[in-house]
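[scheduler] slot 2 assigned
[scheduler] job type: sequence-to-structure, two independent chains
[scheduler] chain ordering preserved from manifest
[runner] begin chain α
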Amino acid sequence: MFLLELAFDGSPDRLALRPAHRERLQALHAAGKVVLAGPYSDESGALLVFDVSAAEFAEIIDADPYYRAPGVSIARRQEWDPIFR
């Protein structure tokens, strides 16, 4: 499993890419590859949990331009070994 933490700098430029990004996340969720995803309530960033291999995780990040959008930065990429699922 992998955690991806995003940081938002307040720039509204990322919002143009958000609808397509959320469609990708919905498809990945339906395929069982995204467990949880969503923004922090203060809109300072977001947390996403992926249940994929390291190679798939890298492909997912590379394929979605939202992760490189103005106003979005990847604050953390972390492999995670949860005790409970």
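[runner] end chain α
[runner] begin chain β
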Amino acid sequence: MTFALSREHETFRQTVREFAEAEVAPHVAQWDKEHHFPIDLVKKMGDLGLFGLTAPDEFGGADGDFTSLCVAIEELGRVDQSIGITLEAAVGLGINPILTFGTQEQKERWLPDLVAGQALAGFGLTEPGAGSDASATKTKAELDGDQWVVNGAKQFITNSGSEITSLVTVTARTGTRENGSPELSTIVLPSGTPGFIVEPAYDKLGWHISDTHPLSFVDARVPADHLLGERGRGYAQFLATLDDGRVAIAALAVGCIQACLDLCVQYAGERTTFGVPIGTKQGVAFQISDLAVMAQAGRALTYQAAALKDAGAPAKEFKQAAAIAKLYTSESAVTATRIATQVFGGYGFMEEYPVARFYRDAKILEIGEGTSEVQRMLIARGLGLPVE
């Protein structure tokens, strides 16, 4: 199997790059400063077809492959990480669970607006005491006649409180298994449901443009047919969702590394000390060379994993590739932003330069959709090691 991107993928890359440079780059510094979530941009992304890349034609999608989605996320992330995560979460965490596990009626009800970029959806998994340990989920959903009654709280939920958020898919305890472990299911809660409370947005270190909120549920009632997939299969569903998401996060991280490389090459050719460009100094040139290695290696790992997904590779093989890609690229992105800030010197510490924004944005890549520690655990298990 070859993992080289096709000519069509590279042509699509150029299309997204031109869009990002024209529609995102001129405004992103101000949006970041104001913590502004640009609804108009989201709708333009929808017009370009970015939210429907992997969705079937019957719901307005392009019926394309997962690799194309990764290309789009990388190119948006190369200009701004917040915009990249908005697309990643909208598709991977919003659309994908409904597309993968929903009934035909659920798909017809919710997907068209999500695919068109006229609406967004979130995925409510993380809680104050339950992140990597999803078995510690406290949110409960009890069946009362023909309705689910949901009580609990979620945190760090992307695309959950914007003006165009239409729903959040929530993991909840719907019972207890014979062995005493919780039965987890996923339930769709439309925005505006009484008892579904969107708390004020977080004041975050980075990703200032991204829409992120804690959520509360107080006797929030939805019809029984809002159960997504089979009852009790919520744990398996979110694991599958996160495997895809890890590769998409890797693509976002590659965009971050590439941005650092591009910015440093330009700056090192223009900034002079002692009468010569700083790029002539080995101490600077070698660091920038390391960025090039990170970008190329990270891109190779990411698109290898994406190709395995598109080829329908065995779940075990894909899971291992996804964990490796996510671990390497996220940690490399953090290192890349540190290097870029150092290359820029004092200017790198100033918010008017984009390396400062990338520096702030990168750290969450090592945490979201599975921490680095979780990725190492998964990789070790894939190697056959008896890791708990």
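[runner] end chain β
[qc] chain β: The mean pLDDT is 96.
[scheduler] slot 2 released
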